[in-house]
Predict the structure.
Amino acid sequence: MDYSASPNYGYATGHDITRFADDQNVTLIEHNCDESLPDLGKFDAVVSSFAIDHVADDRKRSLYTEIFEVLEPGGIFGN
């Protein structure tokens, strides 16, 4: 069963996403991975967990391209 559309997806997978609520160094952004990534600038690291495996294979290829385009030179992607 695909829980990724659920607003409580973090809870469904056993991950407490609320632990970042008061952390000023972390910004959580809800995004539908079937859509193009929002323009948020460049990043030193991009991390995805429990999301990309739920999109169609063709979208995965374009999503990976988008991710690597927003990485700073030498940046890392963790999935």
About this structure: The chain has one domain: 9-78. Residues 28 and 44 are 16 Å apart (CA to CA).
